[in-house]
C-alpha cells in the first residue's frame, strides 16, 4: 500500500496523510483533491519526511480522489517554499498557497464566459442600468467583476443580459500569448551599458546562480542593460521574471518593453481579473508566458522553465510584505535564483545598505553605471534652509523655489514638487476647542481630503464627510488644517502661478492604469507645466523637459526616528532628484529643510553618496542592525487591550536568556491601535550568526493564548 503526505490549505491542519488508490500515480508536488470529512480539499503531495505530522494508522487512511491536470510543483520550488516558511517563521501552507495563485486556474476547463456591452442604447433606462452603461464602456469580465466595477448588484447586470444590453463572450484561457521578439528593436548601447549587458548575457547562457547588483545613477539606462539579458533568455527559450515594486510603475515599463520586444509581457498582480489570472497562471506553468512582470507575489509561481530574475528598484520598501507571510521579495528573489540555479539582477540607483554590504563582501557582483545615458548631467542640488528663507505665512514654498518655478514656466520647462503626504492636511482641528479628528480604529489622525471632501484614515480606510460643525463643541465653520499635504501644495501653486497647468499625482487621483497612462502622455506631450506628487512620481518616469525638482519637506521622513529613516530619506530624495534634467537641458533640485546639517541632507547636497553609506554603515554597526546584526519583531494584538498586554507580557516573561540575543519590550507598537486591534511589540536583536528562527519557534510554539489574541512574527522587519 502506498501512502502520501499532503500539504493542505487549512492553517489548523497543515499536513494530512492519505492513501494512493490503485492505478493512480502521484508525484511529489502533484496537486490533488482529497476528502476531509464531508468536504473535498486541495493538497500538494510532499516528501513525508519533510513535513512533521502524526503517523496515521493505515486502516484510517482515506484515498486521494484525483490529481489535477497541471504539472506538479518542481523540487526547486518546493525547497524555496520550505526555505521561506522557515526563514520568516510562516506556515508552510500559507507560502505554498502563493504558488497556486488561483485555485480556479487549477480546475482544468480551457474556457470561461465573460460579458461586455452590446452597444445597444435604449431610449429609456433605469438609473442603475444607465450608471452601469457608463461604467462598463470598454470593459469585459465576469458578472461579479463587472458588478463591482459599476457598483451595482449582479441582479442588475443579469437583467441587462436578458434585455440584450450585455452579451456573453467565450474566452479561451489557453489562447497563447504572442511571442516576444528579442531582436525587435535592439538599442545601441553605451560602452558602460555594453560591459554590464555582456556580464548579464554570459550569466544567462551559463545558467548558474549569479546575483548581480546593478548600481546605476538615475537615467543611466539600467533598463536597457537588463533588457539584453531578457533578450538572451528569450533566445534560449527560457522564462524571465521581472519584479516591480508598484503597479503604478508598470504602465511605463510595459511601453518600454513593448518597444523593445514587440509585444507586451504577461502581467501578474493582485488586481488582475480572475480570468486574466487564470490565463496567466496556466501560461506560466506551461511555459507560454515568456516574460512575466509582476508584483512580489509573482515570485512563488511555478515557472515551467525560469532562466532569469530581475528586481527593478530593488531598494523599494514595497517589496516587503507586511501582513500574511511577512517576507522581503528582494531577498526571496535571490533565494529563488539560488534554488533555480539562474542569475538574478537587483537594479537600483540607491541600493539598500544590506545589498551594498553583500556586494562589498563579494556575495553579489556589483555592476556600475556611473553616468547618465547620452551625456545628460546629474542635476545640481541646492539646499534651502527654511529657517532663513521662510515661506510667507500660511504658505509652504520658499521664495527661491517659487522664483525657480516661475523661471521654468517662462522657459516652457516643467517642474516637479514632491511631498510624500496624501490629502490636504495631515491634521485637522477645531479652532475653538482644539478638538482633533482621530480615527476610531487606529492611532492616527484623520487626513482631510478636499478633493473628495472627506476625512480619511490612511491605515484602515475609515472615512467621514468633512463635518460642518465641530463634533465636540458644536461651533460651525471652525476647522483648521494643520500642515501641508499634496492637495494643499497644489492649491498654493494654483494661487501663485494661476497660468500654470498643474497635475496632482497621488494614489487618490491616479489609481488606475488608464489614469496613469493619461498623466504620462500629458506630461510627455508638455500639456503639464507643474507636477505635484507623492512618492508615486519619484521613480521610473522620464520627462526630458522636466528641469526643476522641489522637495517640499525633506525632514518629513526623518521624523519617525527609526534606524532606516536616514536611508529612506536618502533614497526618496535621490530618486525624485533623478527625475530632473534627464534630457538635453540641465536639471536643478531645491531641497527645503530645517536641518541642512543632517548627514543625509549634507550628503545629498554634496553628491557624496559614499560618505552617506559609510556614516549609515557605522550607525548600523553600533546598533547591531542589519547587515551586522539581526532584528525580529513579535507583534501581539487583540481587540481587548488588557488581553493583548497580558499576552505580550507572557511572551516577554518567557524570553530565553541567551548571550547573543537581546529582547526589548513589550511596548506599544508604532501603531498602537490598528483597525480596531491593540498592538504591543517585542523587538529581538541578535547576532548575525545566531539561530534566530529556531530560538523564536522554541520560545513561542509552546505558548498558548486566548482566542482573540494574534501573535505575528516579523523577521527582518522594515523598521526597528
Ligand atoms: P534608469 O532606469 O537607469 O534611471 P532608464 O533605463 O530609464 O534609466 O534610461 C534613461 C533614458 O535613456 C530612457 O529614456 C532610455 O530610453 C534612454 N536610454 C538608455 N539607454 C539607451 C540606449 N542605449 N539607447 C537609446 N536610449 C537609451
Ligand atoms: Zn484607521
UniProtKB/TrEMBL annotation:
Q: Which amino acid positions bind Zn(2+) 1, per UniProt? A: 430, 433, 470, 473
Gene3D superfamilies cross-referenced by the UniProt entry: P-loop containing nucleotide triphosphate hydrolases, PriA, 3(prime) DNA-binding domain
Question: Which note does the record give on the cofactor?
Answer: Binds 2 zinc ions per subunit.
Q: Where is the Helicase ATP-binding domain?
A: 203-369
CDD domains, sorted: DEXHc_priA
Q: Which reaction does it catalyse?
A: Couples ATP hydrolysis with the unwinding of duplex DNA by translocating in the 3'-5' direction; ATP + H2O = ADP + phosphate + H(+)
Which Enzyme Commission number(s) are listed?
Answer: 5.6.2.4
Query: Which PROSITE patterns did the record assign?
Result: HELICASE_ATP_BIND_1
User: Keywords of this protein's UniProt record, alphabetized?
Assistant: ATP-binding, DNA replication, DNA-binding, Helicase, Hydrolase, Isomerase, Metal-binding, Nucleotide-binding, Primosome, Zinc
Where is Zn(2+) 2 bound in this sequence? 439, 442, 457, 460
Which GO terms fall under molecular function for this chain's record?
A: hydrolase activity
Stored SMART domains = DEXDc (SM00487)
Cofactor(s) required, per the database record: Zn(2+)
Matching PANTHER family: PRIMOSOMAL PROTEIN N (PTHR30580:SF0)
Q: Which NCBIfam families match?
A: priA, PRK05580.2-2
The UniProt function text for this chain reads: Initiates the restart of stalled replication forks, which reloads the replicative helicase on sites other than the origin of replication. Recognizes and binds to abandoned replication forks and remodels them to uncover a helicase loading site. Promotes assembly of the primosome at these replication forks.
Q: How does it assemble?
A: Component of the replication restart primosome.
Question: So what family is this one in?
Answer: Belongs to the helicase family. PriA subfamily.
The protein's name: Replication restart protein PriA
Q: Which organism is it from?
A: Novosphingobium soli
Taxonomy of the source species: Bacteria, Pseudomonadati, Pseudomonadota, Alphaproteobacteria, Sphingomonadales
